[in-house]
Amino acid sequence: MPHRAWEQHHRAVARLADSCAAIPAGQPVRLAKPTTNLFRARSAVSAPGLDVSGLDGVIEVIPDAPEGPVAEVQGMCTYEDLVDATLPHGLIPYVVPQLRTITLGGAVTGLGIESTSFRNGLPHESVLEMDVFTGAGQVVTTRPGEALFDAFPNSYGSLGYATRLRIRLEPVPSYVALRHLRFDDTGLLEKTMAAIAAAGEHDGQPVHGLDGVAFAPGEYYLTLARWTDDPTSVPGVDRPSDYTGQQVYFRSVAERSQDLLTMYDYLWRWDTDWFWCSGAFGAQNPAIRRLWPRRWRRSDVYMRLLHLDRRFSIADRLDRRAGRPLRERVVQDIEVPVEALGEFLDWFDAEVGMRPVWLCPLVSRRPWSTYPLEPGRLYVNVGFWGTVHVGPDAVDAPRNRAIEAKVHDLGGHKSLYSEAFYAPEEFAALYNTDNLSALKERYDPDDRLTNLYDKAVKSR
Predict the structure, then answer these.
(1) Which of 33, 62, 160, 298 could bridge 134 with an S-S bond, Cβ 3.0-4.6 Å?
(2) Who contacts 303 (Cβ-Cβ below 8 Å, separation ≥6)?
(3) Taking the model in full, what pTM does it have?
(4) Can you list the domains of the chain with their CATH numbers?
C-alpha cells in the first residue's frame, strides 16, 4: 500500500508541474484551492491556478521509524484526514490546529497553534523534511537549518507550496481529562501559565495541553488537559462528554471544573462551534441546534456561510435597516509575552470590548526568520473573532490598526491569516522581508509568486 501511495503522489506532483508550465508567462502562480481558512480578501484572478488534485492525503504512517513515529503527508492534506490516519496507531501530530480543514501545508507556511504548543511549539517545528514546489516550477527538498526551510513558516505561499512533509508524531492514549481553573486576576493567570509551561505539571499532575478563555474582565479560565487511558480517572465523571450534540464546549469551560473527552473529541472540541462563532448563525440556539444536522456543525460550513454574508452584505443590510452603526470586522490572532498578557487584555477590553477571547501559550524552540519569536520565551496567543460597531470610520479599520500598534508596543507579533494594515517599512522590519526577497530571487526568479506584503496587506 505505501508503494502505491508513493506512486500516486509522484503522479500528482507531475500534474502540479504540468499545470504550472501551462500558466502563461507573466500570470501569477497560485493554488486552485476550493476552500480556505484565511480571513483576508483576495483580488479576483481569472488565470488558472495550480492543479493540486491528488495532493491531499497521507502517504504513509511509520510508527517505528528510526527517529521515532513519523508520517509522510501531502501538503493539501487536512488535519481531519491526517488525524484519521494516525490515531488508529495511537499517534497524533505534535500540534493539531483547532479546525478540521486546516491543511498541514497551510499550517506550516502559515502559523498553526493549539494547546500542545506550550511544550511542542508550532506545527513547523515538528517537520523533519519537506518538498516545496517553487515559483520556478521545481520541487526542492529542504530540511531544518536550510534557508528555504527556516523562512517558510509565515511565508504564506510567497516562497512556494509544500507538496510533501515528513512530520514527527507523538503517542497518545484514548482519553483526555480536563481541569478548568478560574482566575480573577491576570497577574496570577500569567504566573500560573509560566509555572505550568516550565514544569509541565500542576498540583502534581502532568499537563499535556494548556489553553484558556477570557470571558470578561475578571473572569479568566485555564484548561489543563491530561492524557489518560483511564476513563474513570476524573472524579464525578462517569463517561466522556459529547459536545457535538446539544451541548456547547466553550460554555462548559465556565460551567464545569472537570471533564473527560475522548482524544478525538478533544482535538476537535473547538471545531463544532467554530470556538463560539457559530452563535452568529443561530447554531447555539437550542431550538435551531436540534434542527441543524450534526454533520453541518463544523467550521468549514460556518466559513461558507460567512462567505455568503460577505458576498451579499447580509449583516450590513440588517444593521442599516435597524439603524445600527457600521461594523468593523476584527478577526485576529496575536502573540504577546506572557508577562504582557494582562496589560493587553485590559487594553483590549477598554478599546475593543470583544469577548470571549481565546488564550493559548506557546514556546518556540528555535529561531525562525520570517516570524521572529524569541526561542524559549513563553508567549500567549490571544485569538478574537467577531465584529465591532464603530460607525462610518469602520472602513478605515481603526480597531485593527490600534491592535497592531499595541501588540508591537508590547513586544509581540501578529499572525497574517487575516487582514493587516502595516506600512511597508514596518512590515519589513517585523517579518524580515529582506530575507524573503533574497530567497524569492533564488527560487522564484521570474517573480511568479505574490510576495508576502502584497498577500497580507494588499490582499493580492
Answers:
(1) 160
(2) 35, 36, 37, 274
(3) 0.95
(4) 2-172+437-456 (3.30.465.10), 175-270 (no CATH), 313-421 (3.30.70.2520)
